[in-house]
């Protein structure tokens, strides 16, 4: 009878009362489970859903061999043992909690000996996160984005109009400058042509002024030459007549040399 009472006392001490933990959907939660590794040395641990049986874990979620996690026992990547296993911290972390995660969980630390296992139970309450704040935030964000987009559109339109107006003004200014340059070039060409024409006309006038004097000189020269020829021819004619007359004595005609 005393042994049975002692056994029940040990079982009562080894089992802790259920701890209630509350969390909202979408959040992460950690269920704390630790043991004195310096006293017991590294021990195997398992986590399961529901009430823990006399040995092992029902609906096992994850377990360790005392040094590392047994990956083949991990049923989901959302279940993590993020504590220091070499310090006896085998707390379970559930990532991105959903409503289906609500319920009872158990942690069993397998201590050598009959009925020596250390067991911890937890009740996880999952509350639905309020959606009004999220909706309001989304609406505000959407409104801000729409306003920003509309403002950006107006600014873009204004910039386009300003750019177009500036380009038109620049084109008009450039066309006006081109017209002025063409006019200046035309005036310069006209001046050059007029100057060349004046030079040609002046040179022709000089030539015409020199032409009468040369003609007079040539006429005088021609006249003097003609008179000389006439006198010479007259002298020759007198001499020939004289020779004909003097030849009457001989009764023969002599030919002129």
Structural write-up:
It is a single chain. The protein is an alpha+beta fold. Among the domains are: 15-130, Immunoglobulin-like (Sandwich), CATH 2.60.40; 175-215. Helix content is 51%, strand content 16%. The strands form 2 sheets. The chain has a 5-stranded mixed β-sheet, with no helix packed on it. A 3-stranded antiparallel β-sheet has the order 2-6-5, with no helix packed on it. β7 and β8 (118-127) form a beta hairpin. The relative contact order is 0.09. Residues 1-16, 218-229, 240-246 and 248-257 have low confidence and may be disordered.
Instruction: Describe the global form.
Output: rod-shaped
CATH architecture of the domain at 15-130: Sandwich
Give the beta-strand count: 8
CATH topology of the domain at 15-130: Immunoglobulin-like
Which radius of gyration do the C-alpha atoms yield? 68 Å
Characterize the largest beta sheet: strand count, sense, and whether it forms a barrel. 5 strands, mixed
- Helical content stands at 40-55%
User: Element order, helices and strands?
Assistant: HEEHEEEEEEH
InterPro entries: Ig-like_dom (IPR007110), Ig-like_dom_sf (IPR036179), Ig-like_fold (IPR013783), Ig_sub (IPR003599), Ig_V-set (IPR013106)
Signal peptide: 1-16
GO cellular component, one term: membrane
Keywords: Disulfide bond, Glycoprotein, Immunoglobulin domain, Membrane, Signal, Transmembrane, Transmembrane helix
